[in-house]
Amino acid sequence: MFSSSTLLYSLSLFLSLSLLFLLLSSSRNNNNLLSPADELDDLSLFHRAALSSPRRLISLSPPPKIAFLFLTNSDLTFLPLWERFFQGHQHLYNAYIHSDPSSTTSLSSSSTNANFKLIPSKKTARASPSLISAERRLIARAILDDPNNLYFALVSQHCIPLHSFTYIHNRLFKSPPHHHKRSFIEILSDEPFLAKRYAARGDDAMMPEIPFEDFRVGSQFFVLAKRHALTVIRERKMWRKFRLPCVVDEESCYPEEHYFPTLLSVEDREGCSGFTLTRVDWTGSVDGHPRTYGAEEVSGEMIRRLRRSNSSLDYFFARKFSPESLEGLMEIADDVIFRD
Length: 340
Description:
Helix content is 37%, strand content 13%. It is of the alpha/beta class. It has a domain at 36-53 and 61-277: Spore Coat Polysaccharide Biosynthesis Protein SpsA, Chain A (Alpha-Beta Complex). Helix 3 links the parallel strand 1 (65-72) and strand 2. The longest helix has 22 residues, at 4-25. The N and C termini lie far apart (57 Å). It comes from Eruca vesicaria subsp. sativa (Garden rocket).
């Protein structure tokens, strides 16, 4: 008699082969950047991760850890600041880096980097579903790597922490118990250009799987509880829609800002905060990029201002910062950033 896990894997393999056939026969995927072989490789990874922890959400042994997921297409300029942030907490976190194959990301030889892992990556591009794939890839690798990764925080090479590690860990892992933890992801249903973003692939391209009333937008950066991380890597139906190219309106095509909010809104809206923990300033944005903070702006008052939020928690992270700002941030790290 087959076990439920075996049946699940067999069904998933069948669906994967069906997907491969569709991919090979479709010409509407020029901006996804993933070959059919790459997609099957990802599906195999997601299967393994999903099957690795079927009943381990409630009875995991301590200590609970945060998985920091770095999505980058360049060097990790702010690695020295993150290393200072992580110092002394090696038993409470893991860090995973998805670096675009064209970049030259490398890690220094400091002891902190024993917790840092460069994962196998594939090419990514802005405004492309390849970013969804990269983020799911990071989540799956983190789930497979350590069963005590209970929160998954997505950050970029331009992100900095705004609080100490202890502050962030304590805020995430205070009651309720692990299996009832909320996810912190922005979910918006009243964004002015929502209809335009929905129709970017064609008027009916998202139907019937994703009716307009289910479509949501939000920030690319999130902090997911493990049960929602598993939801993300198990999902197949919505991905088939969000991986389609935006043939009608490429300027409205930001799949990674749509897929995760839509999926988690449909699956468990009550279990999500609806707000992000990453501060971004969109005033004066250029070409779809948020404001970049320069070296001359770095100060203790700036850090305290960036922390403030209208939600129930302070902001944990902020972006974007220029590479030149690192020196100033390091100078105030111990006395301001990591002193809560």
